[in-house]
Sequence to fold (237 residues):
Amino acid sequence: MKPLVIVPTYNEIENIDRVVAELTGLGVELLIVDDASPDGTGIRADEHAAAHETVHVLHRRGKEGLGPAYIAGFRWGLEHDYTHLIEMDADGSHRIEDLPKLIARAGEDDAPGLVIGSRWVKDGEVENWPIHREILSRGANIYVRAALGLHVGDATAGFRVYRREVLEAIDLSGLDARGYFFQIEMTWRAAEAGAAIVEVPITFVERREGVSKMGGSIISEAFLGTAKLAWNSRFKR
Ligand SMILES: Nc1nc2c(ncn2[C@@H]2O[C@H](COP(=O)(O)OP(=O)(O)OP(=O)(O)O)[C@@H](O)[C@H]2O)c(=O)[nH]1
Ligand SMILES: [Mg+2]
Fold:
């Protein structure tokens, strides 16, 4: 197994040192995908890459959203010889102690195509989340299950491990989602590609430093995108 953790960043200067220290401490390779953060996160990332062989950086021209950043990261990972590509936020919401559990699950004999670090399965948790965030996230997942018939508790989760074969089977150029819908659509595409999807409970912690990059347009993108996906899957084939 040779996993690569992809960490998208936009203005995460308060978080970048910690996330690099945690991941290098685990001995896992990481790729920071920075969208020209005005706060200098990309410059700091380069300094880490110069100091550690296991740290890589991909610079992009400007803020384009989470989806395009991950797709660029996946492409980079697939061009190299990684066996598993992992998504993880920089802001501390995805706890480093949960990462070995996800990787271990991905490496079990049944070799799942996608392992999701899930909040909304038994033993999954959220810490310090305001009630409106919890309602929104749970509601979104009920909607996604009803609309798409996916048997996944947490389809919007952004802490996940893909086997390279699954990403190779998905047409990444056909994806243009920027926010949570990126995760929903990738879950759908992985299922369509025949990947076995398993969930591992995690504790999701509200970000402590820096500010959120997700706004209202990201929510409507997820709502409308899911409806469109459901419509197309029912009537267009
Ligand atoms: N490269 C890149 N990274 C991004 C972009 N938008 C968000 N990110 C990163 O993606 C991860 C998740 O974004 P967050 O802003 O934490 O989104 P969120 O977790 O829904 O929001 P919070 O609950 O407020 O943390 C973080 O590491 C961000 O820095 C973007 O446009 N480009
Ligand atoms: Mg976050």
Notes: The longest strand covers residues 3-9.
